[in-house]
Amino acid sequence: MRLGRGRGLAAVARGLTRCALEARAVDSGTVEDAALAVSELVTNVFDHTFCEPLLMVVLHSGRVRVEVRDADPRLPVSRRPAPGAPHGRGMALVAAVSHRHGVRRLPGGGKAVWAVLALPPPPRRPRPRRTRR
Q1: How far apart are CA 115 and CA 81, in angstroms?
Q2: Are 52 and 70 in contact (CB under 8 A)?
Q3: CA-to-CA distance for 71 and 62, rounded, in angstroms?
Q4: Cα 87 from Cα 117, distance rounded (Å)
Q5: In this structure, are residues 52 and 10 in contact, taking their beta carbons and an 8 Å threshold?
Q6: Which helix H or strand E contains 129, and what residues bound it?
Q7: What pTM was computed for the model?
Q8: How many helices (H) and strands (E) does the chain have?
Q9: Are 66 and 115 in contact (CB under 8 A)?
Q10: What 3-state DSSP class applies to 78?
Q11: What is the pLDDT of residues 70-124, one digit of tens each?
Q12: Which end of the chain has the lower number of beta carbons within 10 A, N or C?
C-alpha cells in the first residue's frame, strides 16, 4: 500500500499492519513487534528522503515479513547515538524485534528495507488416548 507523505502516516502504517495481521489471527506480541518495525521503517523514509513509502506486509510459512520501499538510492545507516540523543535508534529497534532484517536495492532504483518476524509455534493439541480392548 502506498502511504503518501505527511505527519501521522507512521501511525497509519502501524494501524494498517495491526489490522492486516489481526485479521489473520497473528498473536498480539508479534502484531505489536511488526507494528513497531513498520513504524521505524516508515519514519526513516520520512526523516531521510522526500519519497512516498510503499508498505508491504506478508504472512507466509510461519513468518511475518514487513517491507517498506522507497525511491531513494541511499541505504540506511545504523548509528550509535549518544545516551539521551532523541534520534538514531530506529534500525536497532528493528533488529531487536525481528528474526532477520536487511535492505536490498530495487531494480530500476530505490530500496526495500525489510524485517522478518517469526511466529510462535501453534499450541500443541493433546493427543487422544488410545483405549485398550
Answers
A1: 22
A2: yes
A3: 30
A4: 24
A5: no
A6: none
A7: 0.83
A8: 3, 4
A9: yes
A10: coil
A11: 999 988 877 777 777 667 677 888 989 999 999 999 999 999 999 999 988 777 7
A12: C
Task: Output the nine-digit C-alpha cell for 54.
Answer: 510503499
CB-based contacts of 107-110 (< 8 A; 24+ apart in sequence): 109/71, 109/73, 110/51, 110/69, 110/70, 110/71, 110/72, 110/73
Amino acid letter, residue 50: F
pLDDT in tens, 28-42: 999 999 999 999 999
Using DSSP, state whether 29 is helix, strand or coil: helix
Cα–Cα dist 93/34, whole Å: 11
State whether the Cα torsion 90-93-97-100 is positive or negative.
positive
